[in-house]
Amino acid sequence: MKGISKKLLMLLMFSAVFALAACGDSEEVRLTFATGTVAGTYYPLGGAMASVINSHTDGINVTITSSGASADNINQIGVGDAQVAIVQNDVMYYAFTQTSIWGDRAPVRNMGTLMSLYPETVQIIVHADGGIYSVADLVGMRVSTGAPGSGVTANAEQVFAAYGFTPDDVNQFHLNFNDSAAALQDFNLDAFFVTAATPNTAVYELSRNRDLRIIPISAAAASRLMAEYAFYVPITITSADYAFVTTPIETVAVQATLIASLDEVSDDVAYEIVRALIENADEVAEGHARGAYINMHNAVQSVSVDFHPGARRFFEERGVVLD
According to the model, what pLDDT value does residue 321 have? Predict the structure, then answer.
């Protein structure tokens, strides 16, 4: 240290401290996690997932934001406003392939699947005494097929096609779930579509004021849907979902899916996010009931856009066979 002044030595020490601090800052990965509306499922589930990720990874800091759900979240991933998001796998497919509701928008391809989360069930709600017993009975009726440009609208049109008719064959309305429920309650609608986890709040609240029925999707129609669209899976609605369901209702579902940016989330970070959620799914479930669906089997079901390489590595290391 001979020849180095005390002043210069102090300067070097301060420089080293600042360099270490800068190094520490650069090692922390900060991610924005786009979810959904505060009143929906995505937002509180996202909060539970973010808490687990932050607690069980080193150097990953996830912050959730509310949003307009699937389409909005995909747009945010596309432009870099969010790095992680929850979306429906069908809407993700449309955005990636620039089809259906995404036909007139620029495709979004900088996203990869981290894991499937839980089923979002296609539900067709009618009055119990309204004389509608099958999808075919909707022809000529007043039917809400979801908010304009929504995944629900695409689901409804695909269901119609599976039965051999089009939206032009019904008196179509584009209302969100709450407005659809209010219109059905006031007898201004004959039916409305919901694609969401069960029980859906709007349907549940409506069932307290009106006698309802859920229209099934026949096995033949479900087979046609699943043959044409890989994101659909069969599902049964029971009294465990809604008290007014006395006989199991066969229908189809898409999957709520956790996705990440291919541009802004490294393979190692994606790997660690998936590891933390799979290994601590019980903690996610403590924060939100939908966390109970997170496991190695469910996580790889009905994937409509390829896995993020980091997620793929996680599942392959654990012997999970992926498509």
Answer: 79
